[in-house]
Design brief:
With 372 residues, the chain is an alpha+beta fold. It is built from 10 helices and 15 strands. Strands 3, 4, 5, 6, 7, 8, 9 and 10 form an 8-stranded antiparallel sheet that branches. Helix 9 runs antiparallel to helix 10. The longest helix is centred in the last third of the chain and has 26 residues.
């Protein structure tokens, strides 16, 4: 009994090993240097890339020589083409550089909600008015990249082409993997071929989110960079400063004391920073959390604006002393006075001290009025 069990177990183990080896032997690996990726496809497929040499054979499906095939690949953004010997189906890998690709730059930089929204509007990524697309779905089976998968149909030459497409953006490159079946719907066996190809796809470089963000900023144009900075500034202003403006001018309606304004700016800044960190943790979006520092300084000045400046108390005014004029010798013995002269002689009109009774110039009594 034990020997029979061992025999059956050994047979099963041998069968598994043979199956695995046969499966591994039936796959061929190809590297696409321009995109920095490696894929595996069944070895019985006829495969062509852009690395064609003059002596290499060229596919019978193209009535072109090697140079013509290269030009055709470049014109149509094709980097990899594989097809069955009877040309009933084929697999393409394409990559197109567009402003939309550079704006997204990598699916890893998108939050789950943003990726879902992109998937819902994925027709804009490969829109063709002659193609009927079906509802896309998100594929996360590849360990390095997320893919948007969709089915489509294209009527041409009195027959229908059935296709399944996988689309991703990785490190500034769009990667579109398409299997097309001519005249017949895609069978489960062919579905497995393209699915295995997508799962086997391996990128030569793995980047962190911060590294990808730096790479994206290096590739965006100056206008796009300014646009991004303005959006970030507007978003942080709405979060960090607009509530302070509402509190200062619509709720408080008067400036705060410096100490109180400082406490409010610090407490609100910390609370807003915590909200931003929670948002980053949940969404995975690389938000400008450091914006709390400059906006907190601005909030402090907003809270104290309109407040009168502190001034030193004015010194008490000195008591007024009435100046006393001293007579000086003038022409013809006429006295001249400085400050304090406020009385004129009614006879000669010479200026005298206010308490003078006799004119210093004519000698007449200043209290006697002239007869004229």
């Amino acid at each position: 009994m034990k020997s029979a069990f061992k025999t059956i177990f050994a047979s099963l183990l041998l069968l598994i090993v043979i199956t695995v080896n046969a499966s591994a032997a039936s796959m061929a690996s190809y590297t696409i240097d321009e995109l920095g990726l490696t894929v595996q496809v069944p070895s019985d497929l006829v495969v062509f890339t852009r690395n064609l040499q003059p002596g290499d054979p060229y596919p019978p499906k193209y009535d072109l020589n090697n140079e013509g095939i290269k030009d055709f690949f470049i014109k149509n953004d094709i980097y990899f083409n594989a097809f069955s010997e009877n040309i009933t189906y084929e697999v393409d890998i394409l990559s197109q550089e567009t402003p939309a690709v550079l704006n997204v730059y990598d699916f890893h930089l998108l939050s789950s909600a943003e990726l879902q929204n992109l998937m819902n509007n994925s027709k804009e990524l490969y829109q063709n008015p002659d193609i009927t697309y079906k509802t896309p779905e998100l594929i996360l089976s590849n360990p390095q990249a997320a893919f948007i998968k969709t089915y489509y149909q294209l009527p041409e030459d009195n027959k229908t082409t059935y296709g399944v497409m996988y689309y991703t953006i990785y490190n500034g490159h769009s990667v579109k993997i398409t299997l097309r079946s001519y005249g017949v719907p895609i069978s489960p066996e062919r579905e497995v071929i393209v699915s295995d190809l997508v799962n086997s796809l391996s990128f030569s470089h793995t980047y962190t989110s911060s590294e990808l963000e730096k790479q994206r900023l290096l590739h965006v144009s100056g206008f796009d960079l300014i646009h991004m900075l303005l959006i970030d500034a507007a978003a942080t202003f709405l979060l960090f400063t607009v509530p302070i403006l509402i509190y200062r001018f619509f709720i408080k309606r008067k400036p705060l004391e410096k100490e109180q304004a400082k406490n409010v700016a610090i407490i609100y800044g910390l609370a807003a920073e915590i909200l931003v960190l929670v948002y980053i943790f949940i969404s995975g979006n690389n938000y400008a959390a450091a914006g709390v520092i400059p906006w907190s300084f601005l909030n402090y000045f907003i809270l104290i604006c309109g407040r009168q400046k502190d001034r030193a108390p004015r010194p008490a005014p000195k008591p007024f002393k009435k100046p006393v004029a001293k007579p000086v010798e003038g022409k013809k013995g006429r006295p001249r006075f400085g400050l304090g002269v406020s009385k004129a002689c009614p006879h000669c009109f010479a200026k005298n001290l206010a308490d003078s009774e006799v004119c210093f110039y004519c000698g007449k009594n200043m209290n006697d009025l002239p007869n004229d």
